[in-house]
Amino acid sequence: MKASRFLVSTLKEAPADAEVASHRLMTRAGMIKKLGAGIYTYMPMGLRVIRKVEAIVREEMNRAGAVEMTMPVVQPAELWQETGRFDKMGPELLRIKDRHDRDFVIQPTSEEVVTDIARQEIRSYKQLPKNFYQIQTKFRDERRPRFGLMRGREFIMKDAYSFDRSPEAAKASYQVMAQAYRRIFDRFGLRYRAVAADSGAIGGDLSEEFQVIAATGEDAIVYCPDSDYAANMEKAEALAPTGPRGAATQQMTKTPTPGKSTCEDVAALLGVPLSTTVKSLVLATDLLDDQGAIKATQVWLLLLRGDHDMNEVKVGKLPGLAGFRFATVGEIEAHFGCKPGYLGPIHMKQPVKLVADREVALMADWICGANEPDFHITGVNWGRDLPEPDLVADLRNVVAGDPSPDGKGVLAIERGIEVGHVFYLGTKYSQAMNATFLEEDGKPRPLEMGCYGIGITRLPAAAIEQNHDERGIIWPDALAPFTVVLCPIGMDRSAEVKAAADALYDQLLADGVDVLLDDRNERPGAMFADWELIGVPHRLVISDRGLKEGQFEYQHRRDTAATKVPAAEAAAFLKGRLAV
Amino acid sequence: MKASRFLVSTLKEAPADAEVASHRLMTRAGMIKKLGAGIYTYMPMGLRVIRKVEAIVREEMNRAGAVEMTMPVVQPAELWQETGRFDKMGPELLRIKDRHDRDFVIQPTSEEVVTDIARQEIRSYKQLPKNFYQIQTKFRDERRPRFGLMRGREFIMKDAYSFDRSPEAAKASYQVMAQAYRRIFDRFGLRYRAVAADSGAIGGDLSEEFQVIAATGEDAIVYCPDSDYAANMEKAEALAPTGPRGAATQQMTKTPTPGKSTCEDVAALLGVPLSTTVKSLVLATDLLDDQGAIKATQVWLLLLRGDHDMNEVKVGKLPGLAGFRFATVGEIEAHFGCKPGYLGPIHMKQPVKLVADREVALMADWICGANEPDFHITGVNWGRDLPEPDLVADLRNVVAGDPSPDGKGVLAIERGIEVGHVFYLGTKYSQAMNATFLEEDGKPRPLEMGCYGIGITRLPAAAIEQNHDERGIIWPDALAPFTVVLCPIGMDRSAEVKAAADALYDQLLADGVDVLLDDRNERPGAMFADWELIGVPHRLVISDRGLKEGQFEYQHRRDTAATKVPAAEAAAFLKGRLAV
């Protein structure tokens, strides 16, 4: 490509609403242009990156035996009503009425449509397994779209759906996809982790997120540097602590802590480690009657160590706690006789269900609220001062330094950006939509499904969050809009420069190198700044001065200085530098 | 590709709503699957065809210097309000409200968005010309979607937009696109015509439709077999007839024609050629006041030969007739004292504007209605029996046999399917949206635009209308889902057949041939029927019997019998048969 035939369009200033590097840099590099909140045009420079992402994904999906199709963007509501998602999904699902006042949605994913296709196409176990995928425009009407392509409303997603005879076969299909995803992310040239994720009601471990590591990532991801354990924060567990519980050494004492309503403040006031304090969280669960009115309410007191945070996913899975909510101030006062800030499990007004985190259950001589404003209790001990908890469980987020659950070291935490997700679905959709096949015994069985997504347009943004500096983007070779840029200096004045640039350009093109020749006749400073902002990884400068010495200047986007390369060897040198 | 890894899914029966061959065959061949009215999933077999269309279009657009981008499917209403199209476009424009109750549309085309991009990106004449294109999902909420992909609601279109300094430069850009379109349609291997089309208010001849010739086409296209004249029916003109007018030889006579209200019936009753009758069409134009109320109405009488039809586009361009409507029965009775069926230009109750077609103006001794039920007048002559018309003009559609306007023969008419359109837009959008650039003299000027569309998903349907038989589709090589199919017979029973099929498959793949190996172990009859329905152009059959003779059987989809090919030469033979 020659720059004069392309659209090289860089900006000095980032848009005011750009909060993260990828949004700023993609806009400044002329890769995206905002049309509305969370809605972007993929400009020529950005579209080239997206096409490279798509090509790698498509190649690996095909290699893994998946078959591409394209489902409609605008989908009739009927199928979404079959699974109940038309009503259950919130305003993120963009709903439309057509000219005949019939309901439609714009696809946020396509489970319903692909299950409808499967129930028509798949009749016999002989046709299984099957995996259908598409790379297609999606829309989610996010409440607060932001961060450019990172959390847009319109975006491109690769979504794949596997269909199998049995849970075992479905899990094998899942593993094929998980492997394909590793190949895909390896080929992108990004640092990433595949982390176990919560699989909700379906259970088991068959859900993994593919997270691109970046300090600005929205997700905390947990891993063990000494093993291959990795999980997202929702899912991650520490090795269960082992007893025995320490013996009581202190008397239980009511202690004034005026104005100190947090564990941090209390520990500081008393000069003790935060880990000797216990925080009290009050939850409630409602029992509903047939009309959906509240028949009865159960109040729960959860005890966590002062330096730990509750993990809502883990708590929601405990017996009796599905669908929990935080208790109201009224409920708290009724049960504890005290406002939040000084609550504790001792001297309650009404009984509650008491749930202790595994760590808290093993503590001795701990500190909690006294159920009286401006007072805490120190030296609290299980059994002696209060009965054993109704339930002991893992209630908390892990923290760095926790022992890894595989016993092979301690956990570390870093930030990541989710760009892929593989998920074993079971028969959730096939049962709702009666998508069955005939087993060998002639009986119908629901199809076992999995779903597999990659955020095609989010991926370049994640790549940038991981790979940029103050001058701009630094693309891995596989994702760069152009792999190589040739920067001739004074091409309009020097016939020699022009001839050398044209010859090298033609040679690289003939060798299949994705090269751009910058024939805009910009000044060197402006030209270099453009390509550093755009992030092309390999640059060759062709100048009159260099030609006199028979040399070009090569610089990788990460290099701090240029390398002189004999002109005659430039093409060979360059190809040696390109990632395969 | 191996069939076992793909989705080969054919149907015996076509859907009940399939009225045309392409709809029937694409559905039966498993290429499309209906999701809702005018909304289809592109199934794996169909998507392969669409991707081939896209690839050829993309290659030729790039070659012609156009730059690809991708504009959003969901577009904020604001831009559409700037040009007035948000209100002016009918219910075909699908309108949406997002969660914040803001108005959006789903793109039917993207003039507004691309003009918005141009006004931001193009600042100077030095950046011109530019041509931006996309290949992207579109939606038009057709009142009556039908014919499968031919007139769907959701479809894929390639839309390109050129930006230039001057009308002359814009016309040059238009010609570059028209040339690229010829290359594209040549490469598709379809019979097509580029026909002049009406360019509406913009005038000039800079609008052409690319029509795939097919007997089932919705459009009548006009061409001269002896020259390169071609136009669509709206636009086509015959050579203007030359005088002098014939002399009057008959007396004007009121003739009873009881119950004969059409020219055909009258001509039959009187035993005269239809071409001696004249039909009367009554139109009206309204003059509106500032509030949009009707201030005055002008009634027009148009006279056409009985064997000719009115061309509404031509009539709408006549002075005073822009925005005409057909007169009401009340208006007709007030001016003619008679109901429709026996109207004519003689003995009217109130004066009207009289417009005669060029042919009628030269007629003598003609026949028209008597403005009295059940009576016509014969032997009518201009000047003697009624005054000369207020206006003489070309009011009619051409008919086969009319002299070509270039004087080089007579016109012929065939049917076509519009699959592409190139159009010079002028400054219609750039002026409405204030999209200007700075000219060399430092002054802002509106960008001169052109727009260029290709119906990517309509094209395969048009190709099928042109190329099919009673057994199924017959794809040109360039569009086939697979160029070659290998049909081994009894691959599961014969190790020799399997080995020969696998070897040939590997060799063809290595040579870059788009080949499918049918490893489904279907019976020969079912297998051949599938591939004849799907329309793969080249088939090689590998059987035990053939292998004993060292031969495979080759058959092109259009051949009536197979050709024996020595096994060793099969790959070379096949490649010789493939279109380049």
UniProtKB/TrEMBL annotation, chains A, B:
Query: Domain Aminoacyl-transfer RNA synthetases class-II family profile: where?
Result: 38-476
Task: Write out the biased-composition intervals (Polar residues).
Answer: 248-260
UniProt cross-references to InterPro entries, sorted A to Z: aa-tRNA-synt_IIb, aa-tRNA-synth_II, aa-tRNA-synth_II/BPL/LPL, Anticodon-bd, Anticodon-bd_dom_sf, Pro-tRNA-ligase_IIa, Pro-tRNA-synth_IIa_bac-type, Pro-tRNA-Synthase_IIa_type1
Recorded hits in PROSITE patterns, A to Z, give: AA_TRNA_LIGASE_II
Locations listed in the record: Cytoplasm
Q: For the region Disordered, what residue ranges are annotated?
A: 241-260
Pfam families in the record: HGTP_anticodon, tRNA-synt_2b, tRNA_edit
Q: Which GO terms describe its cellular component?
A: cytosol
Q: Superkingdom of this entry's organism?
A: Bacteria
- Coiled-coil intervals: none
Where does it primarily localize? Answer: cytoplasm
> What Enzyme Commission number(s) apply to this enzyme?
6.1.1.15
Q: Which reaction does it catalyse?
A: tRNA(Pro) + L-proline + ATP = L-prolyl-tRNA(Pro) + AMP + diphosphate
Which molecular function term from Gene Ontology is one that the record holds? proline-tRNA ligase activity
Query: Which keywords does UniProt give here?
Result: Aminoacyl-tRNA synthetase, ATP-binding, Cytoplasm, Ligase, Nucleotide-binding, Protein biosynthesis
Q: Name one GO biological process term.
A: prolyl-tRNA aminoacylation
| Family, similarity comment | Belongs to the class-II aminoacyl-tRNA synthetase family. ProS type 1 subfamily.
Q: What does this protein do?
A: Catalyzes the attachment of proline to tRNA(Pro) in a two-step reaction: proline is first activated by ATP to form Pro-AMP and then transferred to the acceptor end of tRNA(Pro). As ProRS can inadvertently accommodate and process non-cognate amino acids such as alanine and cysteine, to avoid such errors it has two additional distinct editing activities against alanine. One activity is designated as 'pretransfer' editing and involves the tRNA(Pro)-independent hydrolysis of activated Ala-AMP.
Describe, as the record does, how this protein assembles with itself and its partners: Homodimer.
According to the UniProt entry, the note on domains is:
Consists of three domains: the N-terminal catalytic domain, the editing domain and the C-terminal anticodon-binding domain.
**Name of the molecule in the record:** Proline--tRNA ligase
